[in-house]
Specification:
- This protein is α/β, with parallel strands linked by helices and 425 residues long.
- Among the domains are: 159 residues, Serine Threonine Protein Phosphatase 5, Tetratricopeptide repeat (Alpha Horseshoe), CATH 1.25.40.10; 114 residues, Luciferase-like domain (TIM Barrel, Alpha-Beta Barrel).
- Helix content is 57%, strand content 8%.
- α3 packs antiparallel against α4.
- It is globular, with a radius of gyration of 23 Å.
- About 2% of the residues have low confidence.
């Protein structure tokens, strides 16, 4: 696929198309290579080839939503609006949250003249993803078609706002943190057996090769003890402050993981992404852990789960009790039943794509105040851990009270071990 990008840079569309096609034919049906080839053929006006690729995707992987969405987009471009909506209903039956599908749905509805329903779809998206500029822009267009100039102006004003990150997120429960690689290097130097985990690194904030180098450095200096926890991220204004691409954060996250894996294993890497271009680069030394440090992917959404299953070694879901799901832009997990459904989806998806490798799962025990271990009933804690273990959870995430000194921290660790961990043995 890198060669296709190179030919695009040279404005040789014919050769670029041939290279994209070669990469797509060698790639599995669920791959960026197939999607990129389909998008390229659609952009060049070859609807027949785009339809062939999309149909092949839906036949070989009926639950792979990009294939159905591409077919719906083709129907939309052909003016077959009812066919497009029917195809999108198939998408939503599999993933009601699928944002690309709903954005296309709003375009189809506007083209049909059903402006009110299009506005309803986009208002719901705007409530769910309140800081996504593209949705606000589409909603402004819908308001204009609905002759609602005031609301259109409000939306456009929100689109063009470029603010330095304010303190609202901090005031609503957010927190500051040290740089994970600097902090964990300090921890690794002071210990010999503890594993060190980033929890988490936002993939879109760093160039993938800089991130790969930081992870390798920590893995080497710790003697192979790094677990690389990653996620797509959700703070729009933080993305803006860093010059990162918020609207494409999920695609960037997938691209970054793939790029890091190439950097950790290949020589003469040739790879062009959204915001980088490697044209024959090699990164040494290699990580201690082979083929690379374990990658644990955070998030509750189906997109995050698919990322963990396709590209990761572990999954980091978290309870959303007391958290507004729109604030962290992920699916709710407020009960064990909801957690079970998400875990079942991960296992089902692993089976569908033929994954046989073990997937670590780490989770925060429900209903326990981890900031006050002395107040936790040891028997309730043991029951909670047993319940998670029986479901296949391999690690649990726990917090200790804030400590002002090393002595306070050591005392808290000792109490936690005596009161809660020792009874589990």
């Amino acid at each position: 696929m890198a060669m296709g990008d190179l030919y695009l840079l040279k404005k040789d569309q014919k050769q670029a198309g041939e290279e994209f096609k070669k990469a797509a034919e060698l790639a599995p049906v669920r791959s960026m290579e197939r999607l990129k080839y389909a998008a390229f053929m659609s952009a060049t006006g070859d609807t027949g080839e785009t339809r062939r690729i999309s149909t092949e995707m839906t036949r070989q992987a009926p639950d792979y939503l990009p294939g159905w969405t591409l077919l719906a987009e083709l129907a939309f471009k052909d003016g077959k609006y009812d066919d497009a909506l029917s195809l999108l209903e198939n998408v939503f039956s599999r993933d009601p949250e699928y944002i690309d599908g709903h954005r296309l749905e709003s375009q189809v509805l506007l083209a049909k003249g059903d402006t009110k329903k299009a506005v309803d779809v986009l208002e719901h998206l705007d409530q769910t993803y309140p800081d996504t500029s593209l949705i606000k822009y589409q909603l402004a267009q819908a308001y204009l078609k609905n002759n609602n100039l005031n609301q259109a102006k409000v939306m456009l004003d929100q689109v063009i706002q470029q603010k330095f990150p304010n303190d609202r997120w901090l005031a609503s429960g957010g927190h500051h943190a040290l740089d994970p690689f600097v902090a964990l290097s300090f921890v690794a130097a002071a210990t010999s057996a503890l594993r060190v985990q980033t929890n988490i690194v936002v993939l879109g904030y760093r160039n993938p090769f800089v991130l790969a180098k930081a992870a390798t450095s920590l893995d080497v200096l710790s003697g192979g003890r790094l677990i690389l926890g990653v996620a797509a991220g959700y703070l729009k204004r933080e993305f803006q402050a860093l010059g990162a691409d918020f609207d494409a954060r999920n695609d960037v996250a997938d691209e970054t993981i793939r790029a890091m894996k190439r950097a950790w294993s290949d020589e003469g890497v040739e790879l062009i992404g959204r915001h980088f271009a490697a044209t024959g680069n090699t990164q040494l030394p290699r990580p201690i852990q082979k083929p690379h440090p374990p990658i644990w992917v955070g998030g509750n959404s189906e997109r995050a789960i698919r990322r963990a299953v396709e590209l990761g070694d572990g999954w980091i879901p978290f309870p959303t009790i007391g958290i507004v799901k729109e604030r962290v832009r992920t699916a709710e997990i407020t009960t064990m039943a909801e957690f079970d459904r998400r875990l079942a989806y991960a296992r089902s998806y692993a089976e569908q794509i033929g994954r046989t490798r073990h997937l670590d799962v780490t989770f925060v025990p429900f209903g326990l105040s981890m900031h006050a271990p002395e107040s936790i009933d040891p028997s309730a804690f043991a029951e909670n851990i047993d319940a998670l273990g029986s479901r296949g959870v391999t690690w649990v995430t726990l917090n200790l009270p804030h400590s002002r000194t090393r002595a306070e921290y050591c005392d808290a660790v000792a109490k936690f071990g005596d009161q809660l961990l020792r009874p589990l043995r």
